[in-house]
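Researcher: I'm preparing a figure for a lab meeting and need a structural model of a single chain. I don't have an experimental structure, so a prediction will have to do for now. The sequence is pasted below. Please return the structure as tokens so I can convert it later.
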Amino acid sequence: MFTKIVLCATSTHLTAGIWRLGKLQSFQIFQNKEQGYQDFKRFLEIHPHIPLYLLADDIEEDFRLETLPHTSGNARREIVERKLNQIYRGTIYRAAHFINREKEKRRDDRFLFIALNNPELVQGWMQVIEELQAPLVGLYLLPMVSQVIVKRLKLMAPHILLCERLSSGLRQTYLHNGRLRVSRLAPILPDSENKLGFFYVTETEKTRLYLISQRHITRDTALSVVMPSLDANSEQISRLVEQENGVDCTRVDLVQLANTLRLDAPLLQKTPELLHMHLLAIGNVPDNLAPSKQIKNSQLNMLRRGINLTSAIILLAGLLLASMYLKESFEFEQSTQQLASQTQVQENLYNEVAKDFPSTPIPSNDLKLAVELHQAIVGYAKSPERIMRVMSQAIENSPEIQINRLRWVRSNDIELKDTDQATVATPIPQASAQVQAGFVPDPTALYQVAFVNGEIRGFTGDYRAALSSVTQLVERLRANPEVEQVQILQEPVNVSSLTSLQGSTAEERTSQQTPALFKLKIILKRQGVPT
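Model: Understood. Here is the structure written out token by token.
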């Protein structure tokens, strides 16, 4: 994932360098012939599944500045593809580099259309790459990387002509406001080495005239020539170009730039294109010219690397979790052993003390069962507190009512009869003592049933008032949310129409002495059951 192979193809050879973590490890040069192809194949077999980046440095390049309507998304891709097919119909390696958007009128988009018109330059190397299915990331033109050098040098002139001496010759690249517009390559012939200054002057003038003809600049435009070089003697060439061509020429020391980029400067002496390859390796990737079918192996390789990385992360997370659980298990085991030893110590202490205990005739299991039964009985134990509280609340505002007797039982039989026979008044008919409608007793549950005997205190013979007092008492009891049912078993007077009248007016004094007795049956609701 952190290793890259950067290639640079010229008309005579291919330079292949290996970068790891942004630092050049090694490089080799393969000649553009059959033996060189075989050596390059063995090189790729030694380094499989490493992403490849291919730079092309050739004379047959094309640069065209075009203006297209401003669009975005799929519409933009379609209009750019249509323009590429129109300009480069039979060209395989082509691309559209977005420059900027115009600030006036319709604010159209400006593109630089670039192409490699000589596919034979990389055909032999591409055949080896396709044969081995090596992951080619893309094909790029070397001048596209040259504009990165200007950005690194922080040159701010609006019109710059970058003159670079490479293995393939003198490359002059024109940049407008730091953006590439056009580039040309002039091979340096052997007889030109002796007249290198004159060669620079001549080629600079040719490039300037070409820029004027293409209306990139005018004759009055101040053109700034930049000459990156390792040789201090190139200062003389820059002064000659400045005098003969009437331009501002600046020499740039590549040693300082190479040191800034962590690249060995002596390597650039024989292989100058290593600077462009290094810039590409550390992330300055320009627009790709290769078609999608030639870079599909790279996409599959990236997918495979992504899957491997995800698997490695999951594996690492699993190992971390496993180690954490193992640590917790070890700590739990230690805690268990510690508690077991403490338990053993306590058992030994208990046995030591229990030796002096007197012997019991009852087995320990029976004692345990007895304790559990006692706890269960205590849990089921109830007191008449509830019925007393209910009666107290009911008679609180009735001082004329006197409670003589209260019998409280717990039973699952709500038809339970009272055993008291000391009633004076005649009981009411059975029909009036029926249970209230809607109450369905649970035969498996225990209900609290109370029989209440009472009388009207200070009764003087006003039976209507006595009946009213008992009726109000019953209503208050029925209104209590803790009461399930109230039955009147005996009233102060028998008001049934079926009974016969008895007595004499002569017995008025005796009748006044007769007490007004009543009897109630109260059933409380089960505790814990919703009301």
